[in-house]
């Protein structure tokens, strides 16, 4: 496998501005091929689906192509790919559909490692249905989500286990396959938030044991589109609220309103872009994706080791979380500086990072950081290089050393 980061970076027009984009955990930049695909869809003429004319047929083909592309990315099937404006909206959609099947006294399990989008919709659905909520806790020292606790959390009334495939602030990759196996053993369904995990390595929803797997294209160089992968037979068993005249078939019955067809064309282009990151190769798109995303994972791991070691060596810098398996995401504080002050000072030096709880509301609380501004998050994606990391380290060192001298 090869990974030429210089060639990858050359395909992203936004990177020409000289900024170190270390904010990818909140959304990535897009390559020229994605921009071109969206533009081409509009230039060709598109109409709503279901019509008898060419522009309508083009829209239908765009939707079908997008479902196939996302299925290839995550190891699902096109007939089980539900598309939507973002994953938060889709999780609310599924929480309502699943929640309508729960009965008072049923139970669900959520984790404090998760982004709030994979917690709050389930809590709200549970409250409406009179369902008991059980919490999987995080080890605040390591950032790990111990699997063993699920043995006491699960029971014959458990209906759903919601868990993330990777923490969006600590990067923790819990043992999702082990957790879902325990859930399935008691007859529960599993909803896996793969938004932060998908950009950082190969994904196989079957191996993960995910009954539902959520991902966001804008986290892997696509437009702002969310998707959920599921077994079509499972989707057939659910009855979401819908207009009487809207499609009955799955996966369309879960999709409300008219789709942003040009953006869906951009999603397909983004998947094709990911499939080519390791250079030209043989095999179908799924095979090329597995090869490319393995190369991405290896490249990010090597670069992150430089970034994390550099941050750890700086005076006054505190890093949070030491998980054994993680994405290339660092969450840290600089002594004597608020997280917002750090992010503002870095922005002034052309380094983009995030600060705050980053919607990891429960996790930031478990770490004792939520009420004091959270921390600073810097994350790597496939287009980051050593120059980005060195600029981050130099800027943080300047802040840390300046405060130390005061």
Automatic annotation (TrEMBL):
<dbReference type="InterPro" id="IPR015424">
    <property type="entry name" value="PyrdxlP-dep_Trfase"/>
</dbReference>
<dbReference type="InterPro" id="IPR015421">
    <property type="entry name" value="PyrdxlP-dep_Trfase_major"/>
</dbReference>
<dbReference type="InterPro" id="IPR015422">
    <property type="entry name" value="PyrdxlP-dep_Trfase_small"/>
</dbReference>
<dbReference type="Pfam" id="PF00266">
    <property type="entry name" value="Aminotran_5"/>
</dbReference>
<feature type="domain" description="Aminotransferase class V">
    <location>
        <begin position="21"/>
        <end position="392"/>
    </location>
</feature>
<dbReference type="InterPro" id="IPR000192">
    <property type="entry name" value="Aminotrans_V_dom"/>
</dbReference>
<protein>
    <submittedName>
        <fullName>Cysteine desulfurase</fullName>
    </submittedName>
</protein>
<dbReference type="InterPro" id="IPR011340">
    <property type="entry name" value="Cys_dSase-rel"/>
</dbReference>
């Amino acid at each position: 496998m090869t990974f030429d980061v210089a060639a990858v970076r050359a395909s992203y027009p936004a990177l020409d501005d000289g900024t170190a984009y270390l904010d990818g955990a909140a959304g990535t930049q897009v390559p020229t091929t994605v921009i071109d695909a969206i533009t081409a869809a509009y230039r060709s003429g598109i109409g709503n689906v279901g019509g008898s004319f060419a522009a309508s047929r083009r829209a239908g083909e765009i939707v079908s192509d997008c479902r196939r592309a996302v299925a290839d990315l995550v190891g699902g099937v096109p007939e089980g790919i539900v598309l939507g404006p973002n994953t938060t909206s889709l999780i609310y959609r599924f929480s309502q559909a699943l929640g309508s099947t729960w009965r008072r006294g049923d139970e669900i399990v959520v984790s404090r490692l998760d982004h709030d989008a994979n917690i709050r919709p389930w809590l709200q659905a549970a409250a409406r249905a009179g369902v008991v909520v059980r919490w999987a806790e995080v080890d605040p020292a390591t950032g790990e989500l111990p699997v063993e606790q699920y043995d006491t959390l699960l029971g014959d009334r458990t209906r759903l286990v919601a868990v993330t495939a990777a923490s969006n602030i600590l990067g923790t990759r819990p043992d999702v396959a082990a957790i879902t196996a325990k859930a399935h053993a008691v007859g529960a369904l599993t909803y896996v938030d793969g938004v932060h995990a998908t950009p950082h390595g190969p994904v196989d929803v079957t191996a993960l044991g995910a009954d539902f797997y959520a991902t966001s294209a804008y986290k892997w160089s696509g437009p702002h589109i969310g998707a959920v992968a599921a077994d079509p037979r499972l989707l057939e068993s659910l009855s979401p609220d819908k207009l009487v005249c809207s499609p009955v078939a799955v996966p369309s019955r879960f999709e409300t309103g008219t789709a942003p067809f040009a953006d869906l064309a951009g999603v397909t282009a983004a998947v094709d872009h990911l499939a080519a990151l390791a250079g030209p190769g043989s095999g179908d798109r799924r095979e090329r994706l597995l090869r490319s995303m393995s190369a991405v994972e290896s490249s990010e791991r090597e670069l992150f080791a430089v970034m994390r070691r550099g941050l750890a060596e700086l005076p006054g810098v505190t890093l949070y979380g030491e998980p054994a398996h993680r994405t290339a995401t660092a969450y840290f504080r600089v002594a004597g500086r608020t997280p917002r002050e750090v992010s503002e000072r870095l922005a002034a030096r052309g380094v983009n990072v995030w600060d705050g709880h980053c919607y990891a509301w429960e996790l930031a609380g478990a770490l004792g950081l939520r009420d004091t501004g959270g921390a600073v998050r810097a994350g790597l994606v496939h287009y980051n290089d050593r120059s980005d990391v060195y600029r981050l380290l130099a800027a943080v060192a300047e802040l840390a050393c300046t405060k130390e001298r005061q």
